[in-house]
Amino acid sequence: AMRAAALLAALRPVLPLVLGLSLGCSLSLLRAAWGRPGAEPCAGARPGALPGRARPEAAAPGPGHEEFRPRIVPYYRDPNKPYKKVLRTRYIQTELGFHERLFVAVLTSKATLNTLAVAVNKTVAHHFPRLLYFTGLRGAKVPHGMVLVAHGDERPIWLMYQTVRYIHQHFGSDYDWFYIMQDDTYAQAEQVKALVTHLSINQDVYLGRAEEFIGGDEQARYCHGGFGYLISRSLLLKLHPHLDSCRNEILSVRPDEWLGRCIIDFLGITCVSQLQGQHYHTYELAKNTEPEKEEEEEFQAALAVHPVSDMTLMYRLHKHFSRIQLDRTYQEIQDLQMQIRNLTALTPAGEAGLTWPVGINAPFLPKSRFEVISWDYFTEQHLFSCPDGSPKCELSGASKADVSEIIESALEQLNSRYQPLLRFSKRQLLNGYQRFDPTRGMEYTLDLLLEAVTQKGHSHVLAKRVSLVRPLSKVEIIPMPYVTEATQVQLVLPLTVQDLDFVGNFLDMFAMNTLDTHDNALLTLLFIYHPYDAQRVSQVDVFAGVKAMVGELEKRYAEVKIPWISVKTEVPSQVKLMDIVSKKHPVDTLFFLASVWTEINMEFLNRCRMNTISNWQVFFPVHFQEFNPALVYRGEQTASSGTDFLRDGHFDRHSFAEACFYNSDYMTARTKLAADILDRDEVLESMEVFDVFLHYSGLHLFRAVEPGLVQKYALRSCNPRLSEELYHRCVLSNLEGLASRSHLAMALFEQEQANST
After folding, report:
1. Could you report the per-residue pLDDT of 342-384, keeping only the tens digit for each?
2. Most confident of 83-97, 168-182, 623-637
């Protein structure tokens, strides 16, 4: 009995699990027994479809129907073929075959290319992810900021045929929706983008303003080209095989009518103005229409307006619809703020939990004194926290415009609150404070000296403190050109006599991290001879030891060649040296300008490839400089843990020795520099490659800390023949690279203790 009681006590915790499993298995068996034996689902039937109404194409999908599911491609390696590194796509969207959402095509002509097409480009082009202009005029001068495709034939039907064919050939596999419009059409870009997000991509869609054919079938409709129309990708794929037949068999004067007849005759699909609960609203403009005075509901809700006769009318329409959209947005914000206030009163915190402004994140709360965000003081003329570290600098450019705008906004808010009882005007900005809160945006506190005027004309001067917030807006993903990690990197290593002690370590790291791993990287050495050493090179070559090391590497790696270039100069200007290297390499070469203390590794080389984009961006990494171990450890054992290797050092922001850039970008910037300085080569001695890209290129300069570039401590030799700024920067780099303030304080303390004893 005692054993049974003990066993029952041990099994008691698992009894609910056993009972649950038993009950579940019993119910499953009962359900299987109640089901009709031999019943099978209908082939091709869709969930929710009525009996006998299944679509015939669902039972046997054709090439135009796609399964919109992720496809996992299994990896298979043929044992009979040599091993090759598998290069996978960087983005999962590419690997899974996802498409972009919307492509826009604008049909233009010779007469309207520089007028209406430019107006379309300035009003709606920046709202669409991809927009191209199509014309029959060949050799036309393309206005700035527009991508034009010329077919060489201005016949309307031929232009439509070639445009649809071009879209299928170049973009048919990349986009889900295709919107075709004319340059005399004003389309509300945001409304069109919102429309396609509510439509299913798995249907054949031909959506626009439905019009009847002249003398044709009463049921058939085509989409009027003047109001734009939307075509789905599935419809475009089905239409493409029949385009040649349509061109030869269908006669029509209007290109939109020709396309509609082609779709109806070969696919049996007619144009519709509403689909899946979404309406394609349009409005036809009358002559001498005043957009500002149009109050019809049909006009306010229109996605597309046609015809637009001139550029001025296009801009007026854009201003009017932008104002409508802005008013709707403000009204939505007010409604949401009211809902937040009502709901906050029901929370445990009550109205005390309501933040200001309503709907914006609460200010950042620091957890320690090190996280406190400081305020920057400013006036209308000066800023007292300057980017270069100086205590006071003049307000100019965007900073001055920002201060003027927030003062105007403060006055506008005060007048809207107190009018008509009081009207405020600014006398003076007494004090201004600003700080950037990463959780909400830019915050301002203003002390304003104001003059208040009553309705009876009495005035009074008073000081008022106001607070403003410029909240962070919608986060946007900046489109960047696609780059891969397979690009070959050409390392360039300038060497002077003072660098000979460190070359061996550089070559060893290069061999271990690139040659042994078969990384796609090459090395070119640049021997910089002093004129005195150059005269004695036949007797004593100061770089003979380095050349011997290179020879050993080439013997060890038979497929590797490490060339070198010899240069004679007293002033080793980085720009002059790069000029010599640039001429000896192709224009598409990706350079990595290294220093002798750089330890090459695959992790950094991949970041060099990804962060450098031809004709777009150059990369200047900030390497991590280790401190002097004699000052940091003072005889103690150095830290060897892999988790704190970035502890005893700092990122050297004074050094611009390392750089990644394409030769073509350097040559372009160097050409502009040559035109600016003419024959004054002495200017080059005061410049680095960074200065060339900063002042003479329109590229993005990506300057970021790089934990993959760790350099051991070494006292750099600073050449006094270089410019004062470069020499001063080199000295600062050496001084700040000695040790941290705490380490230097401890060293001084120990020295004073030793002297006192």
Report:
1. 988 888 888 888 888 888 888 888 888 888 999 999 999 999 9
2. 168-182
Closest CA to 522 of 464, 589, 577, 622: 589
Burial environment of residue 669 by CB neighbours within 10 A (0 to 12, 13 to 18, 19 or more): buried
Q: Do 445 and 515 have their domain in common?
A: no
**Single-letter amino acid code for the residue at 262:** C
Residue appearing with tokens 């073929």 = 81
Residue 95 burial by CB count (10 A; 0-12/13-18/19+): exposed, middle or buried?
middle
What is the rounded CA–CA span in Å between residue 571 and residue 228? Answer: 64
* In a shared domain, residues 511 and 540: yes
Is residue 241 one of the residues assigned to a domain?
A: yes
pLDDT value, residue 292: 84
The set of residues, in sequence order, having a beta carbon less than 8 Å from that of 208 and lying 6+ positions away, is: 223, 224, 227, 228, 229, 230, 271, 273, 280
For residue 189, what is the domain's CATH number?
Answer: 3.90.550.50
> What are the beta bridge partners of residue 622?
705
For residue 154, what pLDDT is reported?
83
Q: Which of 249, 282, 315 is the last residue of a domain?
A: 282
Q: Where are the alpha helices (DSSP H) in 371-423?
A: 397-418
Amino acid identity of residue 551, one-letter, is G
Contact at 8 Å (CB) between 471 and 357? yes
- In CATH, what number is assigned to the domain containing residue 620? 3.90.550
How many CB atoms lie under 10 A from the CB of residue 281? 21
The DSSP result for 292-316, as a single string, is: GG---HHHHT-SEEE---SHHHHHH
Contact 709, 658 (CB under 8 A): yes
Could you count the other beta carbons within 10 Å of the beta carbon of residue 500?
14
Q: Which residues pair with 275 in a beta bridge?
A: 278
Element at 650 (helix H, strand E) = strand 649-651
**Position 601 in a domain:** yes
Domain count, the chain: 3
Mark whether 663 and 708 lie in a shared domain: yes
In a domain, 755, yes or no: no
